[in-house]
Amino acid sequence: MKKLYKNPLIILALGLIIIISASAGAARAAIVYQSAAERVNFSTATISVEVQEKTDEGYVAVENELNFSEVAKDEKFKVGKIYNESVRIVNNSNQETGYSEYVRVVVRKNWYKDGKSTNLAPDLIELGIADGWYLNPDETTTEQAVYYMTTPLGCGNAAEFLVSVQVKSKLTSFVETKPYVENGVEIEGTIVNEYLYDGQAFQIEIQADAVQTHNSEDAIYAAWGIKATCDGQDDGNILTIGGKPVN
Amino acid sequence: MKVNRLILVAAAIALIGGLAVKPAIAYFTDTATVSKTIPITLGDVELPEMDDDVNHMIKTIAISNTGDYDIFVRAKALYPDTCMITKQTSTNWSDLDGGYYYYSEILKPGEKTEDLNLKIDFDGSTSDFNVIIIQEATKVLYDEEGNAYADWTNAISNEDQVQPVEVIEQMR
C-alpha cells in the first residue's frame, strides 16, 4: 500500500484497466450474439418527458420559456386577476417501446429585481394545479412545491398540470406613503404612495421529472431520493410517499 | 512533493470514480425544465379625462382612462332644485344608485366609456344655472376568487377641483 501510495500512477492505471476490461467484456458479449444470418439492430430503450402549454394554435412543446397566452393578452399583468393557463406534462417516450413513467413536478417561485428578492413573499404567487396531483408536504416550502402523479403516465399520454396563475391582491397593501419630492424639493401637502412590490418580477420554474415504472419503488428511490410504496413491482400505482398515504 | 503526490492520488481516484458513475445509474430518467418571468408595476390611479357636452338640453358625458391601470368609474350630477335630471338611454350606465351613475364595465387604459346622456328639465324660474358632473374612479381590485370589484372608499374624484361656492352661485 505504501508502495502504491508512492506511485499513484499505478492506481490510475489499474483503475483504467478495470474499466476498459469491463467495457470490452460487454462489447464482446454483444458480438457473440451476432451472426450474418441473425443480425438484430437494437438500441437502449429510453424514457422522455416534455412540458407543453396551450396556445391559440393548440398545445405546443415548451423548450425553455413559457408563453402564458392569457397573460400575454394583457398589456400589463393585473394583480389579483386569475389567468386561466394550461400547462401539461407529456410522456413523449419512443412509441415503439411504449414505456410508461412516473412523473413528479417541482415548482419553484420567487420574486426578482436585480437578483432574487428573498425578503418578499413567494406565497403571494398563487398557482392553480389540476386535480390528481399529490403535493408532498415534506418537500414543500413557500418557495418550492413538489407534486407527484400517483399513477403511471402512459406512453404518449398527457397529464394536465397548471391551470391558473394569480398574484394575490394583498400585495397592493404593502405600501408606504411619503412626501412628494420634485427636483429635490419636498412639495408640501402632496404625498405619493410607494408600493413595495412595484418594479418586481415574479419567476416561476416548472421542472418535470420522469422515472421508469419497472422496479418502481427502487427506481423512485434511486432517481428522486424518496421512499415510496406501490401496489405492484412494475407499473403500480403509488400508495405512499415518504411514509404518507397519497390518497 | 508529498502534496503533489496526494493531489495526483486524489485526481486518479476522482477520474476512476467519474468513469464508473455512468454504469452505476441503472434507472431510466428524464427531466424537462421551463420557466417564466413576469414583471409587476404598481401605482395610483390618475383622474380620468371627461368629455362634457350639452345639446338640446341633453348633457352627454364620456370618461376616458388616460392612466396605466384598469379602473371602474362612476359619475354624479350636481344641479339646482329648479331643474330635474333624467337618464336617457346610455349603454352600460346604471340607473341612479345612491346619487351616482355607475359604469358597469372595466375601463382599460386608453378606453372610453359609452356616452352617459342626461336630460335636463327646468321649471323656467331661472335661465342661468349649471349642471356639474362629478366623476370618480377607482382601481379594479380582485377578491380571493379572482372576481373584479371596486373599492369606492379609495376613489379619486374631481370634486375637490369644483369650488362649492362657485357651484352654488352657478346654480343660482
Q: What's the short story on this structure?
A:
Chain A has 247 residues and is of the alpha+beta class. Chain A has four helices and 14 strands.
Characterization of this structure:
The complex is a heterodimer of chains A (247) and B (172). Chain A is of the alpha+beta class. Chain A folds into two domains: 2-32; 49-172 and 197-245, no CATH class. Chain A is 18% helix and 39% strand. Chain A has helices spanning 2-6, 8-32, 69-73, 216-224; strands at residues 49-55, 58-61, 83-91, 101-112, 125-129, 133-135, 144-149, 158-167, 175-182, 185-195, 201-212, 228-230, 238-241, 244-245. A five-stranded antiparallel β-sheet of chain A has the order 2-1-3-8-5. In chain A, strands 6-7-4-11 form a four-stranded antiparallel β-sheet. In chain A, strands 12-13-14 form a three-stranded antiparallel β-sheet. In chain A, a hairpin with an 8-residue loop joins strand 6 (133-135) and strand 7 (144-149). By secondary structure, chain B is of the alpha+beta class. Chain B has one domain (49-171): Immunoglobulin-like (Sandwich), CATH 2.60.40. Chain B is 18% helix and 37% strand. Chain B is built from two helices and ten strands, in the order αββββββββββα. Chain B has helices at residues 2-24, 164-171, and strands at 29-39, 49-55, 58-64, 71-78, 83-87, 101-102, 116-122, 132-142, 148-150, 156-157. In chain B, strands 4, 6, 8, 9 and 10 form a five-stranded antiparallel β-sheet that branches. Chain B has a four-stranded antiparallel β-sheet with strand order 2-3-7-5, with no helix packed on it. Chain B is rod-shaped. Residues 165-172 of chain B have low confidence and may be disordered. At the A-B interface, helix 2, strand 1, strand 10, strand 11 and helix 4 of A face helix 1, strand 1 and strand 8 of B.
Topology:
The complex is a heterodimer of chains A (247) and B (172).
Chain A (H helix, E strand, L loop, with lengths): L1 H5 L1 H25 L16 E7 L2 E4 L7 H5 L9 E9 L9 E12 L12 E5 L3 E3 L8 E6 L8 E10 L7 E8 L2 E11 L5 E12 L3 H9 L3 E3 L7 E4 L2 E2 L2
Antiparallel strand pairs in A: 1-2, 1-3, 3-8, 4-7, 4-11, 5-8, 6-7, 9-10, 12-13, 13-14
Chain B lengths: L1 H23 L4 E11 L9 E7 L2 E7 L6 E8 L4 E5 L13 E2 L13 E7 L9 E11 L5 E3 L5 E2 L6 H8 L1
Antiparallel strand pairs in B: 2-3, 3-7, 4-6, 4-8, 5-7, 8-9, 8-10
Keywords (chain A): Signal
Organism (chain A): Pseudobutyrivibrio ruminis DSM 9787
Protein name (chain A): Alternate signal-mediated exported protein, CPF_0494 family
